[in-house]
Amino acid sequence: MKSLSRRTILQGLGTSIALPLLDSMAPAFAGAARTAAKTYPNRMLFLYVPNGVVMPEWRPKTTGAGFELPSILEPLKNVRDALSVFSGLTADKARPNGDGPGDHARALSAILTGCQARKTNGADINVGISADQYAAQLIGKRTRFPSLEIGIERGAQAGNCDSGYSCAYSSNLAWSSATTPVAKEIDPRALFDRLFGNANASEMDESAEKRDRYRKSILDFVREDATRLKAQLGANDQRKLDEYLSGIRQIEQRLAGRVADNREIKAGAAPDGVPPTFDEHVKLMADMLVLALQADLTRIGTFLLANEGSNRPYREIGVPDGHHDLSHHGRNAEKLAKIQQINRLHTTLLAYLAEKLQASKEGDGTLLDHAMIAYVSGISDGDRHNHNDLPCLLLGRGGGTVKTAGRHLIFPDNTPVNNLWLAMLDRMGCGTERLGDSTGRVALT
């Protein structure tokens, strides 16, 4: 069986499809890593949810292994062996620290930076580089995209969104510098074109026009390349390639349906590729994120499920009330029950992503084995706006470097959440002595 370069691509008109990591690429990866032991790269993702959670239904009642999954975490039952739940982690720089109101803006801006945002709604925003972008600047050149930033809600980049704080703080998870947020992509069709286009604008336009006119697939433009390549592959790699291309086609078909559905929506209501329901939107973006990781298009990503302070209703699960309004529950049982439904929907969608990664075989393991997915909110109890003992978990085994999977760990209260990010950065090969307000590393071994 011929050894392939990991940078082998299928090319066609306006199309550039990177391949998934095939068994025949293993020698290339071993050479790049200079060790046969580390055949596949590690990946690092950060998912964020706003407005806190119902903590009694989030926090496991026992520590260590064998804990019972509480209601909000129960959807993760199929990946619990790859799950680490953390208690006691804190985002101190989300606290006022003399700056008064604005907990939502500070919660999001501080969570990956560990820095206090300058309170301004002008152009002089300032917070800090985020953990994902620190890694992207060190190792991002190894992949086509240094990092991917995706989300579900559009967000303004200027103006006052929270008690004198710029909207940039409550709309962006990733920061490439203290003054530069990295905008997220919320349109699935735009993300698809970015992942599988060839960066030649005129060719991409021509390809899109032909696909629309003749009802062609993007795969039709790479058919010859794909047929030629498959003849060189072993049976296992042929199956993996077929599954990968089938996944691309399924997304393409879903996007085609969305464009048709949304053509009657008023201009400006939503980009063409955005599905009408939250869960469909998240799943579509998650599916493309999985394809990007499979093809090693990127190893670093952020996924903002909703902007901080979001007042989105969730009618699809019977919650027509705004999320932020509900988060100020005042211990009202009916409101708490609705927030719990929202929290559980979010972890159900996290489970969807994790199970997709678990189903993707890579060598003797899975994509989930070779990944770390942090899931966090910068607020614990939305009614109190507290930033200690945050809801925080990690999915994946980090290429075998995360030994705490399947456990609930409790750290001393006020342990900086950035201590977890430092431990993750170490496992990406881009460790640093300090990031934001970090004081050390949490133990994951």
Structural category: alpha/beta
Number of strands: 16
The share of residues in helices is 25-40%
Identify the overall geometry. globular
Tell me, rounded to a whole number, the average pLDDT: 91
Q: Please give the order of strands in the largest beta sheet.
A: 4-16-5-15-14-3-11-6
Q: How would you describe the overall organization of this protein?
A:
With 445 residues, the protein is α/β, with parallel strands linked by helices. It has a domain at 197-269. Helix content is 33%, strand content 15%. It contains 12 helices and 16 strands.
Question: Helices and strands in order, then pairings?
Answer:
Blueprint (H helix, E strand, L loop, with lengths): L8 E4 L2 E4 L7 H8 L9 E6 L15 E2 L17 E8 L12 H9 L19 H9 L8 E4 L8 E3 L2 E2 H5 L3 E3 L2 E2 L6 H9 L4 H14 L8 H8 L4 H28 L15 H17 L5 E5 L18 H5 L5 H27 L1 E2 L2 E2 L4 E6 L15 E4 L11 E10 L1 H10 L18
Parallel strand pairs: 3-11, 3-14, 5-16, 6-11
Antiparallel strand pairs: 1-2, 4-16, 5-15, 7-8, 9-10, 12-13, 14-15
Helix pairs in contact: 5-9, 8-9, 9-11
In short:
By secondary structure, the protein is of the alpha/beta class. The chain is 33% helix and 15% strand.
Tag the structure with descriptive keywords.
445 residues, 12 helices, 16 strands, globular, two-stranded antiparallel sheet, alpha/beta
